Amino acid sequence: MLRNSNGPPRKSSTGLSRKSTAYGSHARQDPRPNTDKSYIQTSIRGLINYLTDHNYDQPFSAKILQRPTAKDFTYIVSFLFRQVDANFRITGKLEEEVLQFFKAMHYPFPISKASMQAVGTMHTWPTLLASITWMVELLTYDEEVQNDAANQAALAGSSGSSSSVDDFERADEKALFEYLGKAYKAFLDGDDELYEKLEDGLVGSFEGRCGEVEAQCAVLEANIAQMQAEAQVRRTRHAALPGLRQRRADYESDLGKFRTLIEQLTAHREGLAAKVEKREGELAELYSSLEMVRAETAELKQVVAGQELSPEDVARMQQERVRLDEALGKAREHKGKMQKALWEAEMELSRAVVDLDTAAQTFNGKAASLQLIPITARNSNGIQYEMSVSKGAVSASAEPQDLIGLDIKGVIRPSLGQIKNVILDKVHEARTSVLKMLDEEAKSEEEVAEAVAAFEVMEGKVKKQEEGYRSEKARMEANMAEKVRGAREGARQGCRVGTMLSRVSLHI
User: Cα separation of 208 and 214, whole Å?
Assistant: First the structure.
């Protein structure tokens, strides 16, 4: 709301006011080219000049005023309103207080609240800029009127009671200007009686001023006649002839000046009469335009009063409502599907993390049985094999080594490959040993065939050797099977060591 602890906003020095129709049902259409780019640039330059001349204390530029923010608009209008009311402060909603102030200042064109909710848009800023420009022009006009009044007072104090053609012209122009302001107000208010009084007052003022001019002319003519009589008397006085001649020359010079003044006043009076006649013609045209506008307004009121919605309009509105309801239902259904898909994806991710954690625990168990963990274990060779799933690192861009804390491709696979090679070497050595033992067995059988006589003696030894051989073979096969099974399960996450070890066990 408007705030002024010292009273209502001060009025313009001209005292002009009129009934505002900008916020009623008969809003005037703004005739200014508010959307024209050149007009907008001119308005911005005028606003910049005013803010600069009056020491505006906030940052501003032509670029800012092309698309100002709501904050910039609030600072500018508050500064302009304080030029009218020094105690003005915005304490409520911006749009309500700005509209109320413009209404109090009788701004003649409508301003919507919605335009101040999006100040810098291309659709709303030209209208708001036009209202600010109107305010700047009003303030500038008020300053000019006050300065002119001060100059007139100073001029009247310095010139005393003397008058000239320029004084008459300034006084007449001021009277005509005041008449035009008051007559335009009466025209906007539709007050014909007040307009006739103003017109009669102007005519009376001009007639009175013309009477004053004629009286001054009569006084001047009387002075001239008196001077001429005195000149005639002086002619008879030969002793004072040189002085009288000088006075005569002075009087003649003054007479020429007075005649020139009379001619100027007469021409000025004729000019004033022509101006009055011209203004009367313009006023008649304005009255004619006003009657046409009133008639058109009455016709439009009758059309609006008798206008009703047709059944087709109602049906179309219902169809549009059904279409919008269907679109809203589809949008809600799509939203539900997307939320469900998101939930399912999160659940799948949670299950995948649980599976990964289970696999990591299995891997750690097998690695421990193979003496690969902890890092100080016999077969670890100083390599960290223990897998730990970091649930906080789960994301779409996470790398495997960030999730499990191990570099499978760069460290784990090569190290397990080395362990596999070591095991294969040991298997090869065992196979070689078995083959040697088989060769020895064949040799023994040949010796038995050759030495049948010693067969019974050696048969017990052979059987003992075979039993020892089978026992050793069974023990080695069990040991190798256990090692192969552990290696196959430890390489389950991304390597083929288990498969190769199973093939080795099958060969064995």
Answer: 10
- Measured CA distances, 313 to 107, 319, 466 (Å): 37, 10, 109
Containing H/E element for 168? Answer: helix 165-189
CA distance 46 to 40: 10
DSSP string, 400-423: HHHHHSS-IIIIIHHHHHHHHHHH
User: Tell me, what's the pLDDT at 302?
Assistant: 82
| DSSP 8-class letter at 8 | S
Closest to 287 measured CA to CA, from 191, 198, 206: 191
Q: Measuring CA to CA, how many Å separate 338 from each of 326, 332, 352? A: 18, 10, 21
Q: Is the pLDDT of residue 388 over 60?
A: yes
Instruction: Tell me the two tokens of residue 302.
Output: 């009758």
pLDDT at residue 494, rounded to an integer? 55
Q: Say what the alpha-carbon torsion angle 121, 124, 128, 129 is, to the nearest 10 degrees.
A: 60
Per-residue pLDDT reduced to its tens digit, 341-379:
888 877 877 777 787 778 877 887 887 877 777 777 777
CA distances from residue 293 to 223, 290, 298, 339, 446 in whole angstroms, order as listed: 57, 5, 9, 61, 140
Give the separation between CA 157 and CA 151, rounded to whole angstroms: 10
* pTM for this model (two decimals): 0.34
Query: Which distant-in-sequence residues (6+ apart) come within 8 Å of 167 by Cβ?
Result: 159
Cis amide prior to 242 (ω within 30 degrees): no
Rounded distance between C-alpha atoms, residue 366 and residue 375, angstroms? 14
Answer for the pair 135, 143: CB distance below 8 angstroms, yes or no. Answer: no
Rounded Cα distance, 191 and 71, in Å: 42
Residue tagged 């023994």 (tokens): 444
Tell me which DSSP letter residue 495 carries: -
